[in-house]
Design brief:
about 220 residues, about 10% strand, globular
Amino acid sequence: MRVVSRRPKGLFITLEGGEGSGKTTQALHLCRSLTAKGYDVLHTREPGGTTVAEQLRRILLDDPSEPLAAETEALLILAARRQHVDHVIRPALKRGAIVVCDRFSDSTFAYQGYGRGLDLKALRRMNDWATGQLSPHLTILFDLPVARGLQRRRGTSSIRNRLDRETRAFHARVHAGFHALAKREPRRIVVVDARPSPDIVAAQVETLVLAKLRRSHFKKDRKR
């Protein structure tokens, strides 16, 4: 019998955290590091990642012309996510890539669930429907006190999006929500202290990811 060689499935890594937690910087650093080590890596973000999803991102974050109901916000995020999963994430995982995504489903549960007060069970059902029950293999949650995160965010950008303009109480609920999610799924969600310097945090993230790759027996891209 002829044995058919199969490439291993890809690895889906998401980076989560509140405003100013440094996850976007860490996503870029991680992708550069993994690529330099010979892995096939895709860096993407939410909301966004496709032409349609990026248009929805602008509505969600940058368009102040019309207030959004919490339910509308959630539905737009899920619509963007469906496009993202279908056209970017699943194809990359199918070819065996490491997908590093800046935000995913946990942000929806933290922001729209804990932050906005929408029903978490309903959000989970809708998210499962939108993603086909796709879940990250590893989620890194960057933990930073709310006040410090908002100070970082507002101090480094002259342009404030809709989330930047939310109250500290809202961001405190989001922060608590992320920790509740980590407590619910401790094997998937790893909390990293985001207070040290970016280089120190990056080293911790790389250690976590490389350990996950070893446990998964993940192979490097042989074409490199």
